[in-house]
Amino acid sequence: MRRSSVLIIGVLMGAAASFAVTQPWQVSGSANAAGNADTYRQLNLFGDVFERVKADYVEEPDDADLVESAINGMLAALDPHSSYMSPKNYRDMQVQTRGEFGGLGIEVTMEDGLVKVVTPIDDTPAARAGVMAGDLITHLDGEAIQGLTLSQAVERMRGKVNTPIDLTIRRGDLEDPVEITVVRDIIQIRAVRHELEDDVGYLRVTQFNEQTFENLKDAIEDLQDDLPTAELKGFVIDLRNNPGGLLDQAIAVSDTFLDRGEIVSTRGRTAEESQRFNARSGDLAKGKPVIVLINGGSASASEIVAGALQDHRRATVLGTRSFGKGSVQTIIPLGSNGALRLTTARYYTPSGRSIQAKGIDPDIVIEQEIPEELQGSTSTRGESALRGHLETEEGEEQGGSSAYVPQDKEEDKQLNYALDLLRGVEVHSMFPPDPDAAIPN
């Protein structure tokens, strides 16, 4: 039975990657038969421990809590992105895919027992309060996070709209903790924002939810209406600090700028998890040059888009190395018992690259000028630093990079370099034909 695949990174607080609802997971008879005897012995061990805890623990435990904790422990031992979602968390996730929900507006994961901010989402309470990519949240309202699961920490960060929460943050090499108060709010995610930068179309993609492709298509049409095609120098696609989202949206966004060829492939243990996705005819950008901006906060679906356009030499990728999340998670509903988020495949760029624990290396590396007070506190450690991550299949693993983006566009070195490049250089001329490039069509 086919399961729809989704790409996510971490757990979202007030900003969510979009998910596809899938059919319940069924284990085949042959797989079930293999190793039955040993499996039943292990299950008997679990049953014995469960009963002993119920009978002899100093206080009477709750059966449901024990089972959920056991499930969480099992999944946490696999990799950082597999987890169990309670019925409430699963419902919250389904609401979040529509792009409007309550929360803080941060994308988080777990690192060394603390909540790590992968990225704050644009125009959300967390971003406005000064939460930064790479921050480690150590306390919530003065209570230590150490000892909580990621789901428990996320649940505590949620709450009623207009209520404050105090975050204690460990930031880079700063000796003293940073105290930030964030007021919870309804988060309305604009998946794509756009504007004309004189003669260049600027497209800021904040995440890949159900609205992303339609938002992008409308944005391109608006830009083309505002400026005659002959005068439009090209497009900048800003994927910096974009944590990812739906696989089908990443494919659709890539397809927007491609006429043909493979966009991405997935490979898992089973045939149903191994698929290839190809572009359809039609380039909405009408062949105009494209530059993609990435940084250490660009993950998952963002890396699919950057990798596809880079491999097809359709775009120049500019900025710093991306996060390096090259795995696919499938959401498996468990009836009335919530859902399982399980890593089921790796994905590969058109040329066959796996970016797991390595990330996308930009064609042009441009480092931002970091303010002195933020020196040493703006870099992400990347997927390779997450405990229990899937190892890269070949080559050396790479760490993360800077995720700093200035609020003032005049100080945004990466964006301004991209704009100058589009105005002064034919982007395609930077890519001479490569006879060794092996890109399926």
Write a short abstract of this structure.
The protein has 441 residues and is of the alpha+beta class. The protein is built from 10 helices and 21 strands. The two termini are 28 Å apart.
Task: Walk me through what this model shows.
The structure is a single chain. Helix 7 runs parallel beside helix 8 (247-256). The protein contains ten helices and 21 strands. The protein is globular, with a radius of gyration of 22 Å. With 441 residues, the chain is of the alpha+beta class. Strand 7 (136-140) and strand 8 form a beta hairpin.
Number of strands: 21
State the end-to-end distance: 28 Å
What portion of the residues fall into strands of 2 or more residues?
15-25%
CATH architectural name of the domain at 192-327 and 345-430: Alpha-Beta Complex
Q: Assign the CATH superfamily of the domain at 192-327 and 345-430.
A: 2-enoyl-CoA Hydratase, Chain A, domain 1
- Broad CATH class of the domain at 192-327 and 345-430: Alpha Beta
Average predicted local confidence, pLDDT: 86
Discrete helix count: 10
What percent of residues adopt helix (DSSP H or I)?
A: 25-40%
Radius of gyration: 22 Å
Oligomer status: single chain
CATH topology of the domain at 192-327 and 345-430: 2-enoyl-CoA Hydratase, Chain A, domain 1
Which runs of at least 5 residues are low in confidence (pLDDT < 50)? 1-31, 426-441
Biggest beta sheet summary: 7 strands, antiparallel
How does the helix and strand content classify structurally? alpha+beta
